[in-house]
Design brief:
Elements lengths: L2 H14 L6 E2 L7 H6 E8 L2 E8 L8 H15 L3 E4 L5 H9 L4 E3 L3 E4 L3 E4 L16 H12 L8 H8 L3 H13 L4 E5 L2 E5 L4 H8 L7 E8 L8 E2 L1 H8 L9 E5 H9 L4 E3 L7 E6 L3 H5 L8 H8 L5 H12 L4
Parallel strand pairs: 3-4, 4-5, 12-14
Antiparallel strand pairs: 1-2, 2-3, 5-6, 6-7, 8-9, 10-13, 10-14, 11-12
Length: 330
């Protein structure tokens, strides 16, 4: 008996107060990709015959759209209600599955069987008429990495997570975001999920522009004897190194929030109330500026720099930014 099947038995008895009797089904009529991924059982759920499609071990978590497609295929061919039994389902994916009325069970935590049983342990919002119009920092960082550092198409999602230094669960969310925005398509290669970008280079950058935001979360002024090693020249300081524009009186550097707080706590610098008494301006970024810049980073990457300064009212800055984008080797 698989670990997931054992978990299902225990969970169902606790949840419904009834022992779950599973009967293995012979399903030669199902497509091969469904038979490879799921083992199908019949059972009586609340007095009604249903099918349970238990996901086999070794598969990466699919997108809500992918699970919906599997559910539709199973319902069409088995002519009975089908519930997907999954080992893991992040809350954002669960929210979408509920919206699409896709029945599922995640033993030990979550159940959604419309008209029969709903057990969603975590609270989650269901905003009406609101959609994300910009990418999350992780999604933005990933697609900029694809443009600047290394093409991520046809690379398994787990490898992409390693490259961009996010968790596999976060990368599952990222792929859903990019797919929902129409930036890429999700393709399965054997047991791995890969990203397929229909366009590339400057054309992709232009498509991305409405979804991208400044990486700068907040700015702070500090006093320090010298820049700390993890600080990367940013803002006008970076633009002055990459163009003919002059630097500001105060140099600007970028840090992640974790690096900023760590250095502050260890006395690498002290905060200042304003620019008059400061030695430097710190931009706290929503993703690691060093990841996209290479090593050692001379400045923050060109595309993130553009995004951080594109709202500047200074016409000279705008001219140099446009020149900078024109110099990018897509």
């Amino acid at each position: 008996m698989s670990a997931l099947k054992k978990q299902l038995h225990s969970y169902w008895e606790t949840l419904a107060g009834d022992r779950l009797e599973l009967v293995a089904e012979d399903t030669p009529s199902l497509p091969l990709f469904i038979r490879d991924r799921y083992q199908v059982f019949s059972a009586r759920l609340f007095g009604r015959k249903s099918f349970l499609a238990i996901e086999k071990e070794g598969w990466e978590t699919g997108s809500p759209a992918e699970y919906r497609k599997h559910s539709d295929t199973l319902n069409l061919l088995l002519h009975e209600p089908v519930v997907l039994v999954l080992p893991l389902l992040p809350s954002y994916a669960r929210n979408r599955m509920v919206q699409m009325s896709t029945p599922f069970i995640v033993p030990g935590s979550q159940t959604f069987i419309p008209t029969s049983l709903i057990d969603l342990r975590e609270r989650f919002p269901q905003p009406k008429g609101k959609q994300r119009h910009t990418l999350s920092p992780a999604a933005q960082c990933t697609v900029l990495y694809h443009l600047l550092r290394q093409p991520l198409a046809e690379i398994p999602l787990k490898e992409i997570a390693h490259h961009v230094q996010y968790s596999p669960m976060m990368m599952t969310k990222v792929k859903d975001e990019l797919e929902a925005a129409g930036i890429c398509k999700i393709v399965r290669r054997n047991r791995s999920i890969v990203l397929d970008f229909p366009i590339s280079g400057r054309a992709l950058w232009e498509q991305l522009m409405p979804f991208l935001t400044s990486p700068v979360k907040k700015t702070r002024w500090v006093q320090w004897p010298c820049p700390i090693p993890s600080a990367v020249p940013a803002g006008i300081s970076a633009l002055s190194r990459l163009s003919i524009i002059n630097d500001d009186r105060l140099p600007t550097y970028a840090l992640t929030l974790r690096a900023f707080q760590h250095s502050l706590e260890h006395g690498k610098y002290v905060g200042c109330p304003d620019a008059e008494t400061a030695a430097a301006r710190i931009e706290v970024w929503s993703y690691d500026p060093r990841l996209l810049s290479g090593a050692p980073p001379a400045t923050v990457d060109t595309l993130s720099l553009y995004l951080s300064l594109r709202d500047s009212p200074d016409e000279r800055v705008q001219q140099q930014l446009e020149h900078l984008i024109g110099e990018v080797r897509w």
